[in-house]
Amino acid sequence: MRVPAVEAAGEAELVRAAASGGRSAWRALFDRHHRGVLGYCLLACGRDRERALDLTQETFLRALRGLPQLAEPERFRGWLFSIAANLCRGLSREARRQEILALAELDLEAAPQAGEAERREARIAAVRRLLAGIADPELRQVVTLKYGEPEHTTREIAVRLGIPHGTVTSRLVRFRAAVRRDLIRALLEEEP
Amino acid sequence: MACAVLTPRRIELALRRELPPAERALLLPHLGGPCEQCLDLLGSFEGEALVERLGAAAALTAAEQDSLFEGPAAAPVVARGQSRRRTSKRALTGAAALATSAALVLAVGALLPKRVAEQRLKGDPRRPDAELLALVGVQAPGPQIARAFREGDRLAAGELLLLRVRLSAPAHVYLLVQRTGRDAELLWPAGVAVRRAAGEFEVADAGRALAIDPRELGDGARVLLVASPVPLDPERLRLGPQLPTRAQLADAFPGCGVDLLTVRSQAR
User: Fold this and answer.
1) What ipTM was assigned to the predicted interfaces of this complex?
2) Are B104 and B208 in contact (CB under 8 A)?
3) pLDDT (tens digit, 9 = 90+) per residue, A16-74?
4) Residues with Cβ < 8 Å from B136, sequence gap 6 or more?
5) What are the backbone angles phi and psi of residue B79, rounded to the nearest 5°?
6) Residues of chain B whose pLDDT is less than 70?
């Protein structure tokens, strides 16, 4: 049964409650995120529904087990998707699928976990390819600092480039829109 | 002004893979070009919303959602470092070495014994019928399938056992190995068991066929298969040293599909 108070609660609050064994809190987190995780897994396994369901279940299982160790509950969503990304990695050996996943991750801001050098490389490669299509040098600077090596926060970028924070975020909104466009294009190209 | 080519409806259809070919032919080149209106529209989508639409396109029923939730929720939380893995390293000798591809195993499907799921005991409709199918592989002169393995067969030196599982319904699958006079040990999976779809699959680890070296197990060891509709805690998979019959195994795991295989091999 759903509890309205639980449904209205903040993400971090739910994560803390779920980590303490709160089943309704965990259900609320599951309800919020399972479609997104399933969608990501569908991307990873070429729309194989059964496989994607397995991966989704495994993602939530690992997340539930790892909840007590999640140091920053407010980063639950990105952490959850990084678990899904780790699970999906073995399924997506071919370069094209890696690129689709890298694009999806860029858009989700699912940070790769420590030791995920291979995934990080795929993300960086996707950014490089997208940068090649960006004519605006200022936008290129912002994107490079945000997704390059090392990564910078938007506030750090604003300070470094001497531009308002709002300008940085609006440029990144534009860039992410381009990522979504590429993601849709990649999906269309994937079709037979 | 909105873009006339990329519309919310077309995004929706593209994510569902339901975009008519003519519209796809129109949209694809357009997405490769610079269109500020496209970016205006896409800027209003959250990234998660896009993948969520993909997930929504899978149209999960309420029962499927509950099943997806109940699996993880039913399993107990364990502390970091408390490994579920109880796989016998010795039993897995040669697992990585035999790089037999799934395609190769599939190609010899005709070799497999013709035991069919329908001949199995009927019971609880949720209880999956499960069957172990075994193949004999060799590493030299190159990794290959030698023949099908039938109950009572004896494996020669250098031969390895490769397993496939056939399920009548989705299940979480566990393989245990029981050496003579020893408690059963969880052999596979090494990590958490995922729900397998009905049908047949190869037992594999990290994309490679799992090869069991019978000499490491000793003559007369058993491979036990347990297929459960819900994930099982490793503690539930404990079995004493007495070799069970199929009926005893079924009694030990009510609601689960079970099968077993005796592995006879030449002495080292």
Assistant:
1) 0.73
2) no
3) 888 888 888 888 899 889 988 998 888 888 777 888 888 898 889 889 888 888 888 88
4) B145, B146, B147, B148, B149, B153, B155, B159, B160, B161, B162
5) -75, 155
6) 47, 71-126, 140-144, 206-208, 267-268
Tell me if the pTM is above 0.90: no
pLDDT at residue A165 in the model: 92
Treating both helix axes as pointing N-terminal to C-terminal, what angle do A49-66 and A76-89 enclose, rounded to 10 degrees?
130
Q: What angle do CA A29, A33, A39 make, to 5 degrees?
A: 160
**Are residues B45 and A181, on separate chains, in Cβ contact within 8 Å?**
no
Q: Best mutation site among B194, B201, B202 for testing chain A: the one with the most A CBs within 10 Å?
A: B194
- The closest of B131, B163, B159 to B216, measured between CA atoms, is B159
Which of A:59-88 have CB within 8 Å of B? Answer: 60-69, 77
SS3 sequence, A59-119? Answer: HHHHHHHHHHHCCCHHHHHHHHHHHHHHHHHCCCCCHHHHHHHHHHHHHHCCCCCCCCHHH
CA B217 from centre of chain? 23
For residue range B50-80, what is the model confidence (pLDDT) as tens digits?
788 788 777 787 777 877 787 645 433 322 2
- All residues of chain B having their beta carbon less than 8 Å from the beta carbon of residue A39 are 50-58
Output the CA torsion sign for A155, A159, A161, A163.
positive
Q: Please report the pLDDT score of residue B226 as a whole number.
A: 93
A130: closest CA of chain B, how far (Å): 11
